[in-house]
Amino acid sequence: MIETFNIFLSAPIGLQVIILGVPISFYLVGSWLHDGYKQDKEKTEIDRQAALDIAFKIAKQTEDKNRKG
């Protein structure tokens, strides 16, 4: 473990940046995509609920017309 750390510290700065930057960038991109997925899922659920509300309202109006007519 200590040998690996020493090898990392003795590597050129460019290689150190790449070694540390790649996992950090994957983490950031992954969290960004996950947040977008959660927002899309919530928006889809809201849209689905709104569509159901409209469908039930139309069904009730149709039922009321059929009772009166």
Keywords for this structure?
mainly alpha, 2 helices, 69 residues, rod-shaped
Look at the structure and give the mean pLDDT.
Answer: 86
The description of the largest β-sheet is:
none
Which stretches of 5+ consecutive residues score pLDDT under 50? none
In percent, how much strand structure appears in the residues? under 5%
Rg for CA atoms: 28 Å
Determine the number of helices (DSSP H or I, runs of at least 4 residues): 2
Compute the number of strand runs: 0
What structural class do the secondary elements suggest?
mainly alpha
Q: For the terminal residues, how far apart are their CA atoms?
A: 84 Å
The proportion of residues forming helix, as a percent range, comes to: over 70%
Helix-strand pattern: HH
